[in-house]
Amino acid sequence: MSPVFLLTLRQLSGKWRVVIMTTLAALPVFFTAMSVRAIDAPSVSEFEIIVLSTMLAGSIAPLIIVAIASVAFANEIEERTLANLTLSPIPRWQIVLPKLAASVVVAGPFIVGSAVLTSFLAFNHDALAIFAVATGILVGLLMYASVFVWLGLVTKQAIGVGLLYIVLWEGFFSGFVSGIRFFSIRHYSIALMHGLDPRRFAESQPVGLPTTIAVSVAVVVLFLVLSTRRLRNMDVP
Amino acid sequence: MSGRPEPVIRVDHVSRWFGSVVAVSDVTFDILPGITGLLGPNGAGKTTLLRMMTGLAGVSDGSVTMFGEPVRDNPSLYGRMGVMSEHETVYSFMKGREFVRMMGRLRGVVDLDAATEKAIDLVDLPHAAHLPMGTYSRGMRQRMRLAATLVHDPEVLILDEPLNGADPRQRVHFQSLLQKLAEGGRTIVISSHILEEVEQVAETVLLIVNGKLAASGGFRSIRAALDKRPYHVRIISDDPRALASAVVRLPSVDAVNVDPDGAIIVLSNNVRDLQVELPKLAQASSISLRRVEPLDDSLESVFGYLVEG
Amino acid sequence: MSGSTSETRAVSGHAEGRVFDIGYERYDGPREGRHRARMAVFKDGVRIALGLGRGPRAKVLPWGFIALLVGIGFIMALVVGAVLRLGGPDAAAGLPNHSDFYGISSIFFFVFAAVVAPELLCPDRRDGVINLYLVRPLNGSDYIVARWLAFLSVSLCVAWLPQFVLMIGLVMGNPDPAGYLQTHWLDIPRILTAGAAIAAYTTTLAMLVAGFTNRRAYAAVFLVGLFVITTPFTTALASEIGGAAGQWISMFNLTNIPVHVNDLIFGEVSGVTSGAPAREFPAWVLVGWYFAWVVVPGLVLWTRYRRLTP
């Protein structure tokens, strides 16, 4: 296994991070558990929009992954340890890819776990629904992670820019301006849920499955390439 | 080029600026096998220069090559290079041995266990290798970082202020280690702002001041060249005319000028002799000296600062 | 190799010493005392917050936020002006106004504070620079008060500026500018107080969180998480549970706390708080609750820094 991967795993799993991730990941589960018992429980489409789209795909997944992925490089830059890795005779993508993989491995269990539990409670143990939701969230997570890993390499303000992007772009504008959803990771996360289980988000008519898969792959590859390029051209402190 | 060995590192008209700040300005030199000391006060541009020599930072102008290849964005070269940066930060959660091992793996060492233990032995830290590096003292951290730099037995070593935090005993140990490595034909560049640190090991010193190459050569020959350089000295006394006519006869003085404000400017070819002769002369001619100051003491003062550490 | 370069080229291993001439000048500057030290920390705080004296990248975030908030004020003014022209005063009466501005933009204030405020505290502790401050004639209280005031000043400007842009827009867009000013002049003190309320609140909370971590990243994510998540969470829970318990749950909607005060100052209910059960509480409870959320975190922050010694 890549030493960069193992190193990053250890860097990213601190006590505080686990506390924050657990708290954030528990919120939608708690909310779902409360609302399925309520007398006037929300309708399926209300639930999908509030919990799956707004909370999970739009806030919690990106918030957790921004705290993890954008520091995968940013911490090494800030602590000035990155030279240890870049002065190795290995291709640059072998530094970027393990960092991305470690971010997803650290954050994934919390976010996917939250998605599985939430859909388990909401959809009466329906296996297809759980699978679709978990996969949609996981792929969204991968896309977010590749964007934020790159962001951590290009700016010291990765967290700030990332938060702004989450709140403004994914949260605010994409809800108002319908054209923006084609450039929104949250939307493709939802589209994948719909593609795998057509009952999900039946009313919002997301883009088709093949497009979703193509865009998801393209986003991840694009930002991997950008990160690799950046690592080659930047001044390593 | 004939007769002279091929340079390992070639720095050719290199400049680097950050916005409007020029950190390194048109520096040119070659580094041959053996130990070269890069000297200069803090903030002189040593680190920027070293970072460009390792390819960590790009140049704004000029070029840096190692073994004839560009160092920037050239990972295949990095396996032949051992670099220890000025930053003393380490992965504090990692044990010393883990760190050296990881660096060995990253640099493609084959017999990892043996190389790790050998490197840790070289810096004399086997007793602390099982402890997390967060618990290390500054000197121990530096030594473990040196072990990680040496683990793949590189041909070129570039060390930025490696003796920060080292006590005198470790300093001696380190110097003999460097000499041993250099005898094996390696090329070593070591930077410092303390002359004493590199004086004993480095055959050649490159003196960097304000981002420019201010002097090069052996330490003693730089000293001699400095002494030979003519100096302007400004002298204020109660009788400038009498002093001027007396002082011009001194062998250490080439020329004398009298300023309209009453000061005299002496051009001296040997400022050390002048320091001795001037007070004697003043006493003999009963002239009282109010003030004696060198006008262009830049390199002298820098050098003095470096020598005194 | 060209002839000229080989002549000036210094070579290692070359025993003969050579000296090259370089320019050199002495530094001679003034030295100042304690009040100056406090002012320096304050000024430095303002400069950090706005990214002054740093590269363009450091300016993107703060000025981006300011532009965004001013943009919101500007768009609101444009909409009101357009509607006035097309539909007359009756149609414009129901449009968002000064009283609604902080409700609409509060989330951006929080993100602004969450992202920028930690810059004023975290790096100093992380890099140990705070010790350098404290060996000056400057104690922990001086430091934290100066930093708090610095970010508060910036926040005040960020809070007031868009409101004044909106006001200018409204005055200009009105067919009778002088008459509009005469009837609405009270909006000016209202804007000043409501802006101060939201600025003090966001500054204190953001500084508090920043005071407890060395990493800006975690402070920022924690704060945004707090603000972004508590809103849908408390809103949904409060409406499900209802009654007095629901009202109190609604009080913990952190984005709404200063907006309730804003509503009291303007005497109107903003869009974001109109559905919140907490607004049924008497005014003194809402104001007291607001002050509790400013004073207590402020004291905690102060105690944390007061005892700091180098």
Descriptive key words:
heterotrimer; A: 237 residues; 9 helices; B: 309 residues; alpha/beta; six-stranded mixed beta sheet; 28% strand
Describe the secondary structure blueprint for this structure.
The complex is a heterotrimer of chains A (237), B (309) and C (310).
Chain A: H1 3-12, H2 15-37, H3 44-79, H4 82-86, H5 93-122, H6 127-154, H7 158-176, H8 185-196, H9 209-233
Helix pairs in contact in A: 1-5, 2-3, 2-5, 3-5, 3-6, 3-7, 3-8, 5-6, 5-9, 6-7, 6-8, 6-9, 8-9
Chain B: E1 9-18, E2 21-31, E3 34-39, H1 46-54, E4 61-66, E5 69-70, H2 75-78, E6 81-84, H3 96-106, H4 112-122, H5 138-150, E7 156-160, H6 168-183, E8 187-192, H7 195-199, E9 204-209, E10 212-217, H8 219-228, E11 231-237, H9 240-247, E12 253-258, E13 264-268, H10 271-284, E14 289-294, H11 298-308
Parallel strand pairs in B: 3-8, 3-9, 6-7, 7-8
Antiparallel strand pairs in B: 1-2, 1-4, 4-5, 9-10, 11-13, 11-14, 12-13
Chain C: H1 3-8, E1 10-11, E2 18-19, H2 34-50, H3 56-93, H4 98-126, H5 129-134, H6 140-173, H7 177-184, H8 187-211, H9 216-241, H10 243-251, H11 257-266, H12 283-306
Describe the structure in your own words:
With 237 residues, chain A is an all-alpha fold. Chain A has one domain. Chain A has nine helices and no strands. In chain A, helix 3 packs antiparallel against helix 7 and helix 8 runs antiparallel to helix 9. Chain B is α/β, with parallel strands linked by helices and 309 residues long. In chain B, 36% of the residues lie in helices and 28% in strands. Chain B has eleven helices and 14 strands. Chain C is 75% helix and 1% strand. In chain C, helix 4 runs antiparallel to helix 11 (257-266), helix 8 crosses helix 12 (283-306) and helix 9 packs antiparallel against helix 10. Chain C is globular and about 90 Å long. Mean pLDDT of chain C is 84; it is low at 1-7. Chain B binds chain C through residues 1, 4-5, 7, 12-13, 19, 28-32, 34, 36, 203-204, 206, 209-210, 212-218, 220-226, 229, 296, 298-299, 302, and chain C through 1, 5, 8-20, 22-24, 55.
Mean pLDDT of chain A: 89
Q: How many strand elements of chain B? A: 14
**How much β-strand is present in the residues of chain B?**
25-35%
Sheet/helix structural class of chain B: alpha/beta
Biggest protein-protein interface? A-C, 35 and 30 residues
Termini separation of chain A: 26 Å
Uncertain residue ranges of chain A: none
Total tally of structural domains of chain A: 1
The biggest sheet of chain A amounts to:
none
The amount of helix of chain A comes to: over 70%
Uncertain runs of chain B: none
What's the alpha carbon Rg of chain A, rounded to whole Å?
18 Å
Oligomeric form of this entry? heterotrimer
